[in-house]
Specification:
Citrate_synthase_sf; binds acetyl coenzyme *A; 3 strands; Citrate synthase; mainly alpha; Citrate_synth-like_sm_a-sub; 16 helices; Cytochrome p450-Terp, domain 2
Length: 354
Amino acid sequence: MSAGLDGIIAADTVLSHVDGAAGRLVLRGLDVERAAQSLDFEGMTALLWQGFHPLGGRPDDLRAAIGQARGRVAARLPALLPAISGLSAVEALRLLLASLPDGDAAGDAVMVVAAMPVFIAALDRRARGLAPVAPDVGAGHAADFLRMMTGVDPDPALARALDTYLVTVSDHGLNASTFAARIVASTRAGMVSSIVAGLCALKGPLHGGAPGPVLDMLDAVGDAAAAPAWIAAELAAGRRLMGFGHRIYRVRDPRAEVLKRAVRSLSSPRILLAEQVEQAALTALSRHRPDRPLETNVEFYTALLLDAVGLRRDLFTPVFAMGRVAGWTAHVMEQEATGRLMRPASRYVGPLAA
Ligand code: ACO
């Protein structure tokens, strides 16, 4: 028995393969580097949905359907937004998603994918005292999200970088949030319920909640010369360095490299400091745990990329969900196709009645 279920196979999947020893991620047959180069978010979603959804393998039709669904979801906003007052961004997204009805899986898959940018842009604007901006149903998903956030057409380079990010994080084996979504799907609770479960799991700092703290760390370090001492003090205090380590990867997370390249193309002002902090952290971690390779994970350069795109830190986890929902929906449909309820066993270690 392993408390973290390490190495336990709980599903067969055609969706993605994480090779932790080789540092390789394959998304439906494509290495993540190639997927990020050749597909936009809608194209990646169509690929993931192939064989599970009527619009799978039809990127243009799926792009149109998602655009139209953004319009339908936006029509719900006036009734929903008052309820999110006082909630953090990820809590607000959880509430807004949970307000959607569970209907038929195919329609709901398009709806939850479309809902993410509409909800995230609206909750962010509300936090800034601004009214929502209506979606442009003919625009690309990433570009329309940035337009709904700011009210103006985005710089194409920023939209492209965000698209690269969404594709890069679209799926990643049986991670905690995908597993949570599949467990709920196996009970036949429906697509929306399964996706809400996925988001709840993603919210934690050990999973999708790390990129905001990565920027906090860079702020706290301040300049590269201070990095070694700051990092040593954190490790000595028993704290973890955000953006490093992974349950599966024993080498560098391949997504970190894809995102680093995308951040470089935006000439982020933080990139130099980030690279120097990364080097100092890797040196310190190799001394701290010589027995356990701890390398850069996806969250480190996610933080830099989303910051360079112009997003506030508390939107990082919601925007992660906006990408990962492609994989969650595909896994839900794959799980539903098995028709099998997930019901593992526990080992009782408590007392028995005398
Ligand atoms: N900084 C310092 N020490 C670390 C770190 C880190 N980032 N990561 C792991 N360690 C240490 C742990 O303290 C652990 O020692 P312990 O058991 O004595 O406490 C040891 O290395 C072994 O850890 P693992 O078993 O390999 O780690 P686990 O699989 O439990 O955790 C995780 C993986 C949660 C990602 C961890 O590395 C971590 O907390 N990283 C920081 C948070 C983070 O970056 N999260 C985003 C992950 S990526 C994603 O989910 C999309």
